[in-house]
Design a protein that fits this description.
By secondary structure, this protein is α+β, with helices and mostly antiparallel strands. The protein is built from 9 helices and 8 strands. It has helices at 20-29, 36-52, 83-98, 118-128, 185-199, 213-228, 249-254, 257-269, 273-292, and strands spanning 4-12, 67-72, 75-80, 136-140, 156-160, 165-166, 177-184, 235-239. Strands 1, 2, 3, 4, 5, 6, 7 and 8 form an 8-stranded antiparallel sheet that branches. A hairpin with a 2-residue loop joins strand 2 and strand 3 (75-80).
Length: 297
Amino acid sequence: MAYAAYLRIYEPVAAFHEPDRSRWVAYAASSTRPRRRDSLAVEHAEALRRAITTPWIAAPERESEHAYVRRVDGTTYVCPWQTRRRCLLAYGQMRSESGAVLTGEGLAGEGPAGDGGPAPAALARLEEAGPARLYIMASIWTVPLTWFVPFTPAERWLSLGDGRGRAGTAATASATRALVYTTPMTRARRRVARGLAALRHLPAGSGDGVLEPARAAGDLAEVGRWLEDFHPYSLVELDYGGLVHLVSDDALRGDQSVAEIHAAIDGAARGECELAVAMYMRARDRWRVFAEFEQAN
């Protein structure tokens, strides 16, 4: 199980153009597609198969035909997995960070490749095609604090893995261990805009540099720009993903990250710098512990 969290966009099927609209309608009605509760495990299993293949596979040869599906008030929403696109973008990021060509890199069904091989060539074609919407953002080992801004505590759904779930205003069919927030796009955009406005009330170097308003505003603005790319009647979902397996039931029940970030924004909006920094530090310190798991043996 990958220790990653996910921020996802679900668009109503009516927002897709043909032939994608008809394809997703049929997919959502299919009895053979992965169920919502199983989808993350299926994604991880596919990634593991690519990772243990010799030579390893940087990205599948074809784009995934799968999507996450939600039905709310009679409307069907889908979030395409975009596995190939996401893998190629992650591959490109790894290459840029490492500053070297990764050995054994390739695409599904193809042999090893060095610089100029199938994976680099596919990445180059993807970049030449220009920016395209990415429905799923992933974060390894931690949740960026800006990801909590679009949600409220009442929108949380928690399942401890044995059917003991607790639903807020938006529920999920998951019966596995999970912590998920879901909200309509209009609310998410409004909360991000309010957060950006509130950060302007904080002076630079607030809390002895613990919270740098300009940097926080820049990170939050990126989230806002991403949300603007999608249909206004979409759903936004924050899924703790595999991170729920790193902590106890009590820790999951007691997680108040969304409430803390909202308290920080409320404090900033009122000019209460000390409150804003204290709430920010409480959430930051919790997720710093998660990030440190990456260095553990």
